[in-house]
Amino acid sequence: MARHLAIVGATGAVGREICALIPERKLLQVGKLSLFASRRGVGKQIAVGHSTVEVQELTDSSFDGVDFAFFCAGNERSREWAPFAVGVGAVVIDNSAAFRLDPDVPLVIPEINPGDITDHNGIIASPNCSTVILNLPIWPLHRANPVKRVVVSTYQAASGAGTAAMEELRTQAADYLAGRDVVPRVFPHPIAFNLFSHETPTGSDGYNAEERQMIAETRKIFHEPSLAITATCVRVPVLRAHSQSINLTFERPITPDEVREILSSAPGIEVVDDVEAGRFPMPVDATGRDNVLIGRIRQDVSQPDGRGIELFASGDHLRKGAALNTVQILELLRS
Amino acid sequence: MARHLAIVGATGAVGREICALIPERKLLQVGKLSLFASRRGVGKQIAVGHSTVEVQELTDSSFDGVDFAFFCAGNERSREWAPFAVGVGAVVIDNSAAFRLDPDVPLVIPEINPGDITDHNGIIASPNCSTVILNLPIWPLHRANPVKRVVVSTYQAASGAGTAAMEELRTQAADYLAGRDVVPRVFPHPIAFNLFSHETPTGSDGYNAEERQMIAETRKIFHEPSLAITATCVRVPVLRAHSQSINLTFERPITPDEVREILSSAPGIEVVDDVEAGRFPMPVDATGRDNVLIGRIRQDVSQPDGRGIELFASGDHLRKGAALNTVQILELLRS
């Protein structure tokens, strides 16, 4: 059992979610927890189970004696401090994009590629939240019948950009309803009652960074470096939980019933596909849930050879998309 | 010039938009306008240009002397009254789904298949708003290089389900922000800060009616009865203007520059694709605009043979998606 856990970025959306998971997953029945944040967060008291822990500033001695450190404070903080933490003996579970595509860093979704974890050099990366939500339903299908092509369009919640972004959605919605001007501060465009292409920079190939991450990370996790996959990432005025419209092409014909059967017993997934009641995956239902909800399972009529399947997913990006996945990586490390 | 125009469903979202277009498009410089609505709307005064017109109840004599009647009061009203109006000599431009797939009824987007209008038997149908927004950018590309497959995912505004639905989004958002319970009345699920699969009934094939319409109507308008096309239709908490993530496969390789060049001179379209400024199509920019905004034009990396293109569209479903298209049909009939 770990004696000493640390969370860097403890006051952020993902950090707080990890704090909530620590008692739930019984991670620290015996042991010590250290919480770190940027200056603004220092001194805050965060409830972890029945006790509270004070947030400290990150210093050169912060990782002394730390066994496992969760990093969820952004790329820059991870680049600066993760190698340092490893240098003083901690194993880092990194939630940022800093090391995800580094060939020396395993990128792990425990339900998919737990074996990759053994090869680490002190840092294990947890994928982008959209990658996790996309990969969970595709992987068990891919094992049964290789996936030859993936076309995904996302519907990403404001909170994927942090608590300030979620707050901006609330504020803008209130301002709009009161007839006041809507002023974007966190996002580059209005988010209330609007939507826009994901705010990460768009490259000369026309793809934005979020889309490139989903593509490259899926290939790495699946060990399929040339998997045909394209993504369109869109920010929508939802508070929490990302959704995805997923179009798949398989090597061989596959039926919706086969897909339903495979997904019904797949880990991390819950099939929500009640055609009669009109009940399919929705962000409000996925929020706070460990499982990614999958529905709208149907034969793609545009692929008359029977090799096409359409799916719709909603998953809590802060939970399974981030905090829970990092916690599961810790559990895997200790098992 | 038409001497007598009628609008059935004048108090609804599309009817009001037609009323706004009548002076803008100079449809009635000489002539008479009759407005009809269900009992609740009767007696309302609607501003049309500088005058106001009183809404009347629909009766057996309503269409006497009417040259052209716009129907935008739903499928049932169209089924009941459109043949009657035709019987007394009116030409009906129908905005409902009632006759769109009837082989004897032309389904027309004036920029695409104006020639189909000549074959009418008194009724001309205007397509589903999502079909219009999808077809406008695809058609000019299809003429240059045949489109072999379309995969579309929609982000549809609340007002696509009418003014009451748009009002429900506002009310629910206000209720949520005030900590009150959110109670769905118009939509089957909460719409504020949530999204859900389109509320039309889902069939045994797993597709909902909206998706089936987009597929069947596109095939009819393009005169391509076996065009490979699939759609996923999703309702999002946007007040007005539908968006679409569109993935295309062409017969021959095609580059983003070719697509940009073709779309830049295509009617009904405006290319909004500023990679450096991060400015792409958004509902707030598309609202109230005649043109459908198209951006995120890029080579689909999942089709390494260069035959794949990704697009993102935002278009005002009430304007070009409905009212403007029907008005353009009228203009075509009179030209």
Number of strands of chain A: 15
Label the overall shape of chain A.
Answer: globular
Largest inter-chain contact set: A-B, 60 and 59 residues
Q: Which oligomeric state applies? A: homodimer
Q: How many structural domains in the coordinates of chain A?
A: 2
In CATH terms, the superfamily of the largest domain in chain A is: Dihydrodipicolinate Reductase, domain 2
Spatial extent as radius of gyration of chain A:
20 Å
Please identify, by name, the CATH architecture of the largest domain in chain A: 2-Layer Sandwich
Structural class of chain A: alpha/beta
In percent, how helical is the residue content of chain A? 25-40%
Strand order of the largest sheet of chain A: 3-4-2-1-5-6-7
The chain-level mean pLDDT of chain A equals 96
CATH class of the largest domain in chain A: Alpha Beta
Low-confidence stretches of chain A: none
H/E topology pattern of chain A: EHEEEEHEEHEHEHEEEHEHEEH
Q: For the report, how would you describe the main beta sheet of chain A?
A: 7 strands, mixed
Estimate what percentage of residues of chain A fall within beta strands: 15-25%
Outline:
Two copies of one chain form a homodimer. With 335 residues, the first copy, chain A, is α/β, with parallel strands linked by helices.
Please tell me about this protein's structure.
- Two copies of one chain form a homodimer.
- Chain A is built from eight helices and 15 strands.
- The first copy, chain A, is α/β, with parallel strands linked by helices.
- Chain A folds into two domains: 136 residues, Rossmann fold; 187 residues, Dihydrodipicolinate Reductase, domain 2.
- The mean pLDDT of chain A is 96.
- At the A-B interface, strand 8, helix 4, strand 9, strand 10 and strand 12 of A face strand 8, helix 4, strand 9, strand 10 and strand 12 of B.
